[in-house]
UniProtKB/TrEMBL annotation:
Descriptive protein name: alanine racemase
Record-listed substrate binding positions: R223, M393
Composition bias type Low complexity, residue spans: 1-35, 43-58
Enzyme class: isomerase
Organism: Albimonas pacifica
Family per record: Belongs to the alanine racemase family.
N6-(pyridoxal phosphate)lysine: residues carrying this PTM: K125
A GO CC annotation given for this chain: cytosol
Reaction it catalyzes: L-alanine = D-alanine
Amino acid sequence: MTAPRPSAPAGAPAAVPPTGGRGPAAPADAPAPRRTGGGAETEPTVVRAPEPAPARGAATDDRTAAGASGPPGAAGSGRDGRAPAMAASRAATAPVLRVDLDAIRANWAQACRLGAPGRLSAVLKADAYGLGLAPVARALAEAGCAAFWVNDLDEAQRLLAVAPGAQAFCLMGLADATPAAFAALGAIPALVSLAEVEACARWAAAAGRPMRAALQLDTGLGRLGLSEAEAARLAAEPERLAGLELAALVSHLAAYNLPDDPGNAAQLALLERLACGLPRAVLSLSASSGLFLGPEWRQGLARVGSALFGTQTSVVRQPGLRPCYSLEAPVIAVAAHPAGRRLGYRGAGELSRPSRIATIAAGYADGLPQVYAEAGRPHVQGRRVAVVGGVAMNLTMLDVTDLPEAAARPGARAVLLDAAAPVEPVAEAMACAPNVLLTQVGAAVRKEYLGA
């Protein structure tokens, strides 16, 4: 169950209903079948976008202008290493994800209000859910966030470059890095096994100084972390933890989005019981949805991830959150087609009336799932339009018949995801969490930042 779908903008025409059946999926690059029988088709009138002029300024990318270092691309290049002129040219014919940093700051402030009296931290793993670790971390640090969770040492290095002095917890534990590397950077591994505990204790003994670490405990999710038996072993043999300064005892709710699931209370009780036998450290169990489970969950160190970006991940709507994303794509061609014309691979859509169809430069290679054709709520200049003929690799067609010609011509922008066309309905159709869609889109497309 997800949040209710918002109503269409005022004055928007109703979305064009699907017309014609959908056959089995065709290969992405298969040619569309020709219509047979019933006479020849009328050739469409097509208007195409002019060759794009170089953009006035390069978009802010989290690995270049936003301050992070390292590949992909050399300094001053596009995200894939293109020269600036090539990147600017592509910007006019490719989708862009606009990330509103002011919305992220506002969502952080809302989470802090809800999470009191507990402490809050920000989860920016997987490149801040695909939205760009460096600019998002900088914005949150400016808003007062002092503790972050990332995947590994590489992400911790990028984080600390823009938020020096912050706590940088690494959820994958040591992974393939050494305790010495974590200590040198000042990052905190959230250890996932007895072997990692022993490796850090050995390093602390050899270095002659303590090592800061968190300890992950498996209380029911079954992924990473020490089992109940392993935690009991540490409690019985405290010398195994010699030299470690525990910054947190961490676990993860399996039914985080279901407030009434009895497993939540059982996991909290188990974590508290295991903690009694271990060195004193703050407990970290609640994630974004945990802030809405009740006062007993607003303790310790909550980890806020999806709420920062305005996505709804609980069956209980989380109030006061602003979507921070806007996925836009340019119109590159507009064609007039007669009624009865079938469009898309295998004639996936049939037009019920004479129509103007805009082709936009966005598709599943940009993270847009094919189910978007049915579940998406795209709009052009605030007016709803319908997808026709499915979602291809780099192109999607929209029915813009009901829009003024000036509103949907080559060079215009279609909005595919934003506060009025949120990720939740599409994710529901995908049978996945909203973060899945947000992360895959963010990883695939160029990003620009507002409120930097």
